[in-house]
Amino acid sequence: MKKLLIAAAVATTALVPLGAQAQMKDSVTLGMQLEPTPGLDPSQGSAAAISQVTWYNIFEGLTRINEGGEIQPMLASSWTISPDAKTYTFKLERGVTFHDGAAFTSADVKTTIEAAVAEDSSNKAKPMYQKVAAIETPDDHTVILSLEAPNALFLFKSAQSTGAIVDPASAATNMTNPIGTGPYKFVRWTKGDSVEMELYPNHRNAANIKIKKAKFRFINDANAQVNALLSGDLDYMTALTAAQMFTQFKDNPDFTALEGTTEGETILTMNNKHPALSDVRVRRAIQHAIDRQALVDAAMFGYGTPIGSHFAPHNATYVDLTNMHEYNPGKAKALLREAGHENLELSLKLPPVGYATDGGQVIADMLSQVGIKANIENVQWPVWIDQVFKNKQFDLTIVSHVEPMDMNNYTNPNYYWQYDNAEFRDIYAKFEASTTPEDQKKWIQAAQRKIAEDAVNGFLFELAKLSVAKKGLTGMWASWPSFINEVAALSWEG
C-alpha cells in the first residue's frame, strides 16, 4: 500500500510541473542594470539601455550585425553598391507589417531618414544621414540612397539602433508606446521595474521563434542581481554590475557563465574647454597618473582590457597605444609643474554604475599622488545626462562609450568633451571616404593615434561582458559588438 501511495503522489505532482515547465519553456526574464532613459525609442534616445531592450526585439533596421560583428540583411533582403561607393540600392523584405498592422514600404525608410535629419531630431546618427543627398523609392520594395561622398561605415552604422525604421503614423509616441516591425510587440512599461513584450504573430520569422513572452527587469543593485539569479526570479542577467560576483557562477552547474567583450570604451572624460584641461600637458599628466592595469584589477577584479585610445582591442585595425602615456607619476608631476598646475582641484562626476563608482575612487587616489584633488560627486543618470552630456557642466567624469565605431564623436566640437581639432577631422574624413580595406585601415589607425597624442580623454579600459543564465537557456551572445539582447535567438533546451 505504501508503494502505491508513493507512486500516486509522484504521478499527481508530475502533472503540475509539466504545465509550469511548458510555460517556462516559452518565456524568459532578463535582467539589466539600467532602465531606458528617457524613453523606448532608440532613434531618439542616446542611452544604451534603450537599444538593449528594443533593438532587434521591437525595432528593426535595414541591416543588422551578428555577434561576430558581420553585416547581414534585416529589413533589406539585399543591396548593391555603385562602383563609386556613393549609391546604395536596397531591396526590401515583402509582407512586413508594423505591430499596429500598417504595411512596411520604402516610404517608411524615406520618412525615417528625413525625420533623422530634421532640425529637432536628436538621432545620434544625424550627421551621417545628413550626408544622404537623395532618397528614391521607385517602388514599395526598393530604396535608393545616394550619398554626398563614400562612407566606409554606412552599412555598419545602419545596423545600429539609430537606424530603426518607424511608421510615421506612430513615431510620435514611440518613446512610451514603441511600434516597430520586430519579432516582439510592446506590452507594458512598469516604470522603475520592467518592460514586457510578447511575440508578434505576423512577424516573418514568428514560426521559428521559441520565446513567446519576455520581460526585461531593471535591477541596479549588484547584490540584488545575484539574489534574483539564485532565487530563480531571473533567467538571464545580461551583464553583471559587479565583476567580483561573476566568479561564484563559473563553477555552479545550475548556471551558464559567459565571459566576453564589448564595444564599451571606458574613459575618464575631460572637459577640453576647462581652463586647466584645455592644456594638453595637463591632460597628458592625468593619463600618466593612471595605472590602467591596477585600475582594472582593483575596480573590475581583473575583467577588462587596458586601452590607449578610443577603439576596441578586438577590432582588426586596433593599434595598442597604452604605452604612449604609460603610468609615470614623476612625469605627470613634471608636466603639471610645466603647465603651472601643481595643485589642481577638479570635480569628478560619477554616474551610478559600478565601473564608474568603483573606478572613480581608485582614480581619485591615483590623481592625488601627483597633486590633483578630484572631488567626487555621485549623480543619477538623469542628472548626468543633463549636467554632463547636454550642458557640459563638469571637469571630469567616467563613462563607457558603448556605441560601436563611435570615434566620429571626436569630429564634433560641440560633443560633451568639446574637442576641436581640424587635423583630426581631416583624418577621419579620409577614413570615411576610403573605399579599400587598406586605406580604411591606414586612416582609422591614424585617427586612433591623433586623439591619443592629444590625450583628449583618459583612455582606461575596454569593458568586459560578464553574463549569467540559468542552465538550459541557449542563444545568448557572449560578446557585445553592439549592445543587443536578441530575445528571438533564445530558447530553452528540450
Tell me the CATH superfamily of the largest domain: Dipeptide-binding Protein, Domain 3
**Distance, first to last CA:** 35 Å
Work out the radius of gyration: 24 Å
CATH architecture assignment of the largest domain: Roll
Specify the number of helices: 14
Tell me the structural class.
alpha+beta
Write down the oligomeric state: single chain
The mean pLDDT is 92
Poorly predicted runs: 1-23
Tally of domains? 3
Main sheet specs: 11 strands, mixed
**Which descriptor suits the 3D outline?**
globular
How many β strands by DSSP? 19
Task: Give the DSSP E fraction (strand runs of 2 or more residues).
Answer: 15-25%
**Could you name the CATH topology of the largest domain?**
Dipeptide-binding Protein, domain 3
Give the class-level CATH name of the largest domain. Answer: Alpha Beta
Share of helix among residues?
25-40%
What are the SSEs and their pairings?
Layout: H1 2-24, E1 27-32, H2 48-54, E2 63-65, E3 71-73, E4 76-81, E5 87-92, H3 106-116, H4 126-129, E6 132-139, E7 142-147, H5 154-158, E8 184-190, E9 194-199, E10 213-218, H6 222-231, E11 236-237, H7 247-250, E12 255-270, H8 280-288, H9 292-300, E13 305-306, H10 329-339, E14 344-350, H11 354-368, E15 372-378, H12 381-390, E16 396-401, H13 422-432, H14 437-453, E17 458-470, E18 473-474, E19 491-492
Parallel strand pairs: 1-10, 1-11, 14-15, 14-16
Antiparallel strand pairs: 2-3, 4-5, 5-7, 6-7, 8-9, 9-10, 11-17, 12-16, 12-17, 13-17, 18-19
Helix pairs in contact: 8-10, 9-11, 13-14
